[in-house]
């Protein structure tokens, strides 16, 4: 596949600047393939391991689209949810949103279990555009009424195969049930065993 540069991906100058400031010039193969599909609003499943640039492959289009929507003015509420299996991944994804989104004026927070929920619920109450979460704490805070997914427009299931290996199938389905019908769904998985194909058929519409 020919190399695609970030300046060929129709990114807003603010998003492009954040990406080039990090020293990135060429999009990685997963980025070159996924970003255009995501920007068109399609549901998508991408096969990519950690280290391939998959985090930017889903973060950059979400930041770009939310930034453009926000400029026009939109209702408060969580617009993007990234569901990921572990606290470490959640923190890393939060750092990516901070880096690629640093000129976009969007707010994000990261929630995971094993720590007190107060700083997390305070961040939620201040208002965020993007939520990065592990399943247990997410469902817990939804149950307590701190999180509503009715304004969601982008749902990313990160490391889907690992999620299933860790026993999160029921949690994924519970989250999926609460998504508004027009929500764009993006899945990433390092491997594509039959159970991942079945999950994709269940949660992807397009
Ligand atoms: P990930 O696969 O998302 O965990 O990303 C792996 C690492 O690659 C991260 O440290 C990114 O900062 C870096 N990275 C992502 N995309 C690119 C790119 N297009 N060019 C150079 N480095 C990148």
Task: Please provide a written account of the structure.
By secondary structure, the protein is of the alpha/beta class. Helices cover 47% and strands 13% of the residues. It contains 9 helices and 6 strands. It has a 6-stranded parallel β-sheet, sandwiched between helices. α2 packs parallel to α3 and α3 (54-72) crosses α4. It is globular and about 45 Å long. The two termini are 25 Å apart. The model has no long low-confidence stretch (mean pLDDT 96). The protein binds adenosine monophosphate. Adenosine monophosphate binds next to α3.
Question: Fraction of residues in helices?
Answer: 40-55%
Indicate the overall shape.
globular
Q: Low-confidence parts lasting 5 or more residues at pLDDT below 50?
A: none
Instruction: Name the quaternary structure.
Output: single chain
Determine the strand fraction and express it as a percent band.
5-15%
Label the structural class. alpha/beta
Radius of gyration: 16 Å
| Major sheet | 6 strands, parallel
Strand order of the largest sheet: 1-6-5-2-4-3
Number of DSSP helical runs: 9
- Encode the helix/strand succession as letters: HHEHEHEHEHEHHEH
Q: What's the total number of strands?
A: 6
Spell out which ligands are present.
adenosine monophosphate
Mean pLDDT reading: 96
End-to-end Cα distance: 25 Å
């Amino acid at each position: 596949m020919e190399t695609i540069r970030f300046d060929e991906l129709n990114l807003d100058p603010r998003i492009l600047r954040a990406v080039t400031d990090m020293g990135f010039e060429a999009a990685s193969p997963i980025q070159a393939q996924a970003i255009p599909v995501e920007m068109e609003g399609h549901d998508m499943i991408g096969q990519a391991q950690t280290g391939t640039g998959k985090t930017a492959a889903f973060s950059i289009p979400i930041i770009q689209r939310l930034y453009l929507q926000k400029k026009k003015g939109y209702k408060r509420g969580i617009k993007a949810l990234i569901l990921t299996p572990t606290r470490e991944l959640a923190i890393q994804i939060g750092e990516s949103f901070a880096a690629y989104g640093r000129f976009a004026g969007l707010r994000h927070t990261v929630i995971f279990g094993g720590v007190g929920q107060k700083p997390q619920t305070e961040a939620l109450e201040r208002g965020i555009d993007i939520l990065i979460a592990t399943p247990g704490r997410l469902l817990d805070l939804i149950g307590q009424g701190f999180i509503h997914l009715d304004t969601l427009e982008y749902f990313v299931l990160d490391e889907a195969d690992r999620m299933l290996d860790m026993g999160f199938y029921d949690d994924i389905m519970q989250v999926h049930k609460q998504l508004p019908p027009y929500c764009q769904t993006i899945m990433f998985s390092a491997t594509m065993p039959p159970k991942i194909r079945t999950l994709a058929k269940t949660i992807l519409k397009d």
